[in-house]
Amino acid sequence: MNTLINGAPCDTISVNDRGLLYGDGVFRTLLLRKGKVLQWHRHYACLFKDCNAIYLQCPPESLLYGELERLVQDAQDGVIKIIVTRGSAQRGYAPAPHPVATRILNLSPLPAYSEAFSTSGIRLHLCQLRLGQQPRLAGVKHLNRLENVLAAAEWDDPDIAEGLLLDESGYVIEAVRSNIFMVKNGDLITPDLSRCGVSGVQRERLIEWAAQQGVKCKIMDVPLDDLLAADEIFLVNSVIGLWPVRELPGYHCEHHPVAQVIQDWLAHDSN
Amino acid sequence: MNTLINGAPCDTISVNDRGLLYGDGVFRTLLLRKGKVLQWHRHYACLFKDCNAIYLQCPPESLLYGELERLVQDAQDGVIKIIVTRGSAQRGYAPAPHPVATRILNLSPLPAYSEAFSTSGIRLHLCQLRLGQQPRLAGVKHLNRLENVLAAAEWDDPDIAEGLLLDESGYVIEAVRSNIFMVKNGDLITPDLSRCGVSGVQRERLIEWAAQQGVKCKIMDVPLDDLLAADEIFLVNSVIGLWPVRELPGYHCEHHPVAQVIQDWLAHDSN
């Protein structure tokens, strides 16, 4: 069983589901490792917050977690995707007053990324697509992801592991499926996501970790030139963990001492 | 039979369809009247252009039209929705090199709008949500419609028939599910949609009609104050036809002579 819809094994949804019609829903991507769902409480908190942002009632944590346990009961490792949509309802954009959300839980095998991406670092493509600004949806991991699709279509060189996204003003925001950090003079810097971008759980963990360690972590507008002058650049998300950036047009870096420390911490402190 | 998926009667799609996962697809809404699909060639041309905009190969016109004929064979009147998605494929945002599109054709009953909306005009809500700007997707009727959903959630007064959308710079763009025109000193004016908004078939028809009639129709940036100073305002789309605007905060207009002429023409020249 690798998909549960509203608790039942099933791999299709209604063509009237608003997730399909309008991208009217949110999602999370989680890691299953050695039979354990990593960072569940954080992911649920983000799902809850994201549902609120689009006025959708989030399914209760106990319900979702119970279904998750059934989904992964015979599995050890994999990628879990949780989608919550506003379900099927009346015609038209306006949400029904009390919609019944659709819950989709899916388990798939771990992707086969090159080990070198984690150890030696990756090549990063600079995307031509610029992210539009929409403060009402900024930070939210919603199902309107055409910008990411168009950005990911910009390269097909398997040696390039990710794409860097700027906003329409030219500020660095994120990578296509991960958040970005830079190291400068011992400080961490990560882009402000109040106008666009997706705020991931690993980004959140890292910001908290920095505060606990007494490492300064600035959340701010980052012009591309500042990124290219960084001592280190790295990407984080729940599936990849941390990838140092070795190459980006105008940037080259072989050594990532700070990124390595954080990579180890992200991998070992997995609660 | 009210839904065909890839030509077969069916009302569910795979949870792996990219239309659900990313809103990775486009759609059209057409009218069936007296057994006839109105403006088919125009709608297909828009579908084709919109598919191109997201690098998706549009299904051939003959294939879609053959399926449309089967969908509507026993029906007289209704609303047809055509959705084309990038189908189910590999994990991740990057499109497969040669994806097989999913074709969804759905027929539903005509909505029961008040006759007064067409004759006396409507009340228009001024939405707080401002549209983000994304030139790469502007004009395209794609499945990323969360902005429309959030905007439509702003009012629940059944007396208000539509919502007016401005962009982040404060320019008038469109209404939640229709295009907008204003009349000023005998000229038509409709907003430029090169940064955001959806370009509908009725807007296109009207711009062409104006050129044929020697009526000046300007496509330009429209500040809200200019709209409020209009002699007439009206909305168009394929389902509603034309609705004059009677009320909008800061605007009131009981007589819509130009809108009436255009309304009659839109309704009668239906090829």
User: In terms of structural class, how would the helical and strand content of chain A be classed?
Assistant: alpha+beta
Q: Please tally the β strands of chain A and state the result.
A: 17
The secondary-structure element order of chain A is EEEHEEHHEEHEHEEEEHEEHEEEH
Please give the most extensive interface between any two protein chains, plus how many residues each contributes: A-B, 57 and 57 residues
Query: Beta fraction of the residues of chain A?
Result: 25-35%
Share of helix of chain A, binned: 25-40%
What is this structure, in a nutshell?
2 copies of one chain form a homodimer. Chain A contains 8 helices and 17 strands.
Features:
D-amino Acid Aminotransferase, Chain A, domain 1, D-amino Acid Aminotransferase, Chain A, domain 2, alpha+beta, ten-stranded mixed β-sheet, 8 helices, globular, 271 residues, six-stranded antiparallel β-sheet, homodimer
Blueprint of the fold:
The structure is a homodimer of 271-residue chains.
Chain A: E1 3-5, E2 8-9, E3 12-14, H1 18-22, E4 25-33, E5 36-37, H2 40-53, H3 61-71, E6 78-85, E7 102-108, H4 115-119, E8 122-131, H5 146-152, E9 160-167, E10 171-175, E11 179-184, E12 187-191, H6 201-213, E13 217-220, E14 222-223, H7 224-228, E15 232-237, E16 241-248, E17 251-252, H8 257-268
Parallel strand pairs in A: 8-9, 8-16, 12-13
Antiparallel strand pairs in A: 1-2, 1-7, 4-5, 4-6, 6-7, 9-10, 10-14, 11-12, 11-15, 15-16, 16-17
